[in-house]
Amino acid sequence: MIPPGADTVLVRHGDVGSKSAKVQSDMERVLRENLERTLESRDIEAAVDVRWARIFARGDDVDAIADAATDAFGVVSASPCLVVDPSMRGIRRALANTAREHYDGGAFAVEARRAGSHDFTSQDIGRDGGEAVWEAVENDFQPEVDLDDPDITFFVECRDDAAYVFLEKRDGPGGLPLGTQRPLVALVSGGIDSPVAAYEAMKRGAPVIPVYLDLGPYGGPDHEARAIETVRRLSAYASGRDLTVHRVPTGPAVERVVEATGAERMLVYRRLMYRIAEAVAEEAGAVGVVTGEALGQKSSQTAANFAAVDDATTLPIHRPLFTRDKQDIVSQARDIGTFDTATVNAGCNRIAPDYPETNADPAAVRAAVPDDLPCLIETAVEDRDLVEVP
Ligand code: ATP
Ligand code: MG
């Protein structure tokens, strides 16, 4: 619900506010730039400012501005506001107009905050503001005040140079502004887990460089289409940043692994993936690898097996979903809009052996790596191409 005449969106951050003054102001700048880029990429006009640890975006389409803000990492909530004179008269008038437009019976509350010097307190705003709402609607309704469980809340935030009146706080994703960390390579398969893992890394501020391994006879165009489409979905949260996918032709290397290995196959295959991710990361300036792996989700994802693969690369392998249940991941994939694509059927040939190792001996896994694999990896990385995500 938007107060009549609203022309500003008040945007609040969370973890950013727990930083030292310098870091906070740097992060606020990044958040402001991200919001500006998102607005631009959606053709929404707005002027964005940072003041008193809040971001204010002024423009005509406050509904669209608030939606854009709540897609930006670092944002905890956003409210389309009517901005008025920081006087009791100005606030009362704004509340009365807003009530006439939006109140339609039931219990209401006025919730006020105030900072700066005024000749009234926040309690005064609550009381006088409540009276203004009451008087505005009493001819048409039998209003009722309930501060604990209202049907509608009129929020007022009063500062030295303006007062803000709003009716809702739309939830944002929280986290930290994208771009406040160095980039990470995200291994994206087009499945349910990997886009959620990439989202989580982005949510804490790390831009991702998506890497898709084209597994040749073990993958196929449908897999690739899923991977590209899930990345496209993620671009809604990327603050207008580039999410070009590095597509690495990994078929020959995987065929070699399948032919040369038995019980350790999946672990040699995981090592192959990390090596490829590492090579792309080195060229692209990324400082780690993100995967959708979770403890115990698959036979290759046991605690012992992670211990047998992580030394394939000197880069840290980040597994944001490590402790998450599948149902929880699925529900998040639905929320962020990647689930439907990830579940499009894209049959494939099975790489896994009939009896995959679940308690690998790291030395045995290293010994199972075919000698010519590094060479195949090098060729695959050299031959990769870039798929722009529309
Ligand atoms: P997802 O985990 O995305 O749902 P999955 O569970 O079928 O797919 P696994 O075989 O469990 O995939 O692989 C674990 C992780 O390895 C994935 O989450 C992803 O990060 C990475 N991965 C798997 N296949 C590919 C691929 N073809 N290209 C890039 N990364 C991949
Ligand atoms: Mg998985």
Tell me what the structure shows:
It comes from Salarchaeum japonicum. Belongs to the ThiI family. The protein has 390 residues and is an alpha/beta fold. The protein contains 13 helices and 15 strands. The radius of gyration is 26 Å and the shape is elongated. The longest helix is centred in the first third of the chain and has 21 residues. α3 crosses α4. 39% of the residues lie in helices and 18% in strands. Strands 1, 2, 3, 4, 5, 6, 7, 8 and 9 form a nine-stranded mixed β-sheet that branches. The protein starts with 7 loop residues before the first strand and ends with a strand. The structure holds adenosine-5'-triphosphate and magnesium ion. Magnesium ion binds next to loops.
Short recap of the structure:
By secondary structure, the chain is of the alpha/beta class.
List keywords for this structure.
binds magnesium ion, Probable tRNA sulfurtransferase, RNA-binding, binds adenosine-5'-triphosphate, 13 helices, alpha/beta, EC 2.8.1.4, six-stranded mixed sheet, single chain, nine-stranded mixed sheet
Topology:
Layout: E1 8-13, H1 21-41, E2 47-51, E3 54-58, H2 62-69, E4 75-84, H3 88-102, E5 107-114, H4 122-137, E6 144-145, E7 152-158, E8 163-166, E9 170-171, E10 184-187, H5 193-203, E11 208-214, H6 221-234, E12 245-249, H7 251-260, H8 265-284, E13 289-290, H9 303-307, E14 317-318, H10 326-336, H11 339-342, H12 362-368, H13 373-382, E15 385-387
Helix pairs in contact: 3-4, 5-10, 7-8, 7-13, 8-13
